[in-house]
Design brief:
The chain is of the alpha+beta class and 416 residues long. Helix content is 19%, strand content 29%. The protein is built from six helices and 23 strands. The strands form five sheets. A six-stranded mixed sheet has the order 4-3-7-8-1-13, with no helix packed on it. Strands 9, 10, 11, 12, 14 and 15 form a six-stranded mixed sheet that branches. The longest helix has 31 residues. The N and C termini lie far apart (141 Å).
Length: 416
């Protein structure tokens, strides 16, 4: 190919790129904003991150501002912007207990909320600095605290739909996750959120199906909210088995070289995934997260060669569980013991991605802080024990005075 042909191809490619950019900018010109503001209903599970696109805006508006209200017409409105376009954080820096104002970001007119909590449920408005609204959402964040797990391998079935006159309460399940392990028996699951169908819903809220919204929607009247309060999200779990992808030739050659340079019968140990080392003090709690995993990902945990299946280790399966996996895919170890030592492997989307070598020691200093729940529990138990001992002592002293010998009054003795 000669130089003129190359120049023509580069010019054509540049023209196509410019056309693509113009097309993206003209999306807002082709999408008129509604004359009457409606609310799109959207439901998510707690600890998930979600994105709300601003589907329409006037052409002259170059930057949008997002607003939040807990209820329509509330006097308290949160402004989700720094008036410079985007704000504040990255998903890796977000903690569960953080306020909404430090858990969002604005990118290309869309609002991103990280690790959403039930308190974030409400109405979200896309608008201008002057308070003109273009698009709005009705967001329902459903709590995972009371989530009910259903295991198909044990013959369990999801909850049946609930019919109460014209009210229909049911669970809408998402797609199955990929198998969380490969080469061995794994698990996959699907999340189900609470939805209802009723003719008494507010007409100002846009529904994906006629008269159907999520149970925590602001379109649900108060008289119906109490009837759907007991219908919690569900988690459906089943076994699966998929083959692993072929290992790369590079790793095979590396192992051959290591076997050659090593001594006979003393093959060096080469970790298959990155290993992180952690030393934990005896009897203290630990939470391990899988790198790069989100709550909607298929995540699995192994301890050495033991597979920690959700059928036995999912949070809530047993009230007295010391080691469990929560609904956000974190591995919890309460009151660490010596036999907890080992390597904990993390699988993400069917591939083992990381390992954590845990050591347990009974030595070392531990910084005491009242924010530590274990320290608070110890102080509460100490205080309760002190109050019980004080009550027993006072009761014993009073009883001794009542049943003891009568007191002698020297002035009342008869003369000798």
């Amino acid at each position: 190919m000669n130089l003129p042909h190359i120049i023509v191809l580069l010019w054509a490619w540049g023209s196509l790129r410019a056309f693509e950019i113009v097309e993206k900018e003209n999306i807002f010109q082709r999408t008129p904003c509604p004359a009457f503001l409606m609310f799109d209903n959207a439901a998510y599970l707690a600890d998930m991150s979600f994105e709300l696109p601003c589907h329409c805006k006037p052409e002259e508006v170059s930057a949008v501002v997002w607003y939040y209200q807990e209820h329509l017409g509330s006097s308290h409105t949160k402004v989700l912007t720094d008036f410079d376009g985007q704000m504040l954080t990255a998903a890796s820096q977000v903690r569960v207990g953080s306020d909404l104002l430090v858990r969002f970001s604005i990118r290309m007119f869309s609002l991103l909320v990280f690790r959403a909590q039930p308190e974030d449920s409400g109405l979200y408005f896309c608008g201008t600095r002057k308070g003109d609204y273009f698009y709005a959402y009705d967001v329902d964040i459903q709590s995972s605290e009371e989530m009910v797990a259903t295991f198909k391998d044990l013959g369990q079935e999801p909850f049946a739909d609930d019919y109460r006159g014209s009210l229909h309460v049911f669970t809408t399940f998402w797609e199955w996750t990929p198998c969380d392990r490969c080469g061995v028996r794994g698990e996959q699951w699907r999340i189900g959120l609470c939805y209802l169908q009723s003719p008494d819903l507010s007409p100002r809220y846009r529904k994906t199906m006629p008269d159907v919204v999520s149970c925590g929607s602001r379109a649900v009247p108060r008289k119906l909210q109490a009837k759907v309060r007991d219908h919690t999200p569900e988690l459906l779990v089943q076994s699966c088995l998929v083959p692993c992808k072929n290992t790369t030739k590079i790793r095979g050659r590396l192992m051959a070289i290591l076997n050659y340079v090593s001594k006979v019968g003393r093959r060096p140990w080469l970790p298959q995934v990155p290993i992180q080392y952690h030393q934990q003090r005896l009897s203290h709690g630990l939470i391990i997260s899988c790198p790069g995993a989100r709550p909607e990902h298929a995540v699995a945990w192994d301890k050495d060669r033991q597979h920690l299946y959700r059928t036995q280790y999912l949070k809530g399966t047993n009230r007295s569980m010391r080691v469990f996996i929560d609904h956000g895919n974190h591995l919890h170890i309460r009151f660490t013991q010596l036999d907890d030592r080992g390597i904990y492997y993390c699988w993400r989307q069917g591939e083992r991605v990381a390992g954590f070598r845990l050591g347990v020691t009974s030595q070392g200093r531990y910084k005491v802080s009242l924010s530590d729940p274990e320290v608070r529990s110890a102080l509460e138990l100490t205080l309760i024990g002190y109050l019980l001992l004080t009550a027993v002592f006072v009761s014993w002293r009073g009883r001794k005075k009542r049943v003891g010998e009568p007191r002698i009054c020297p002035l009342c003795l008869p003369p000798s």
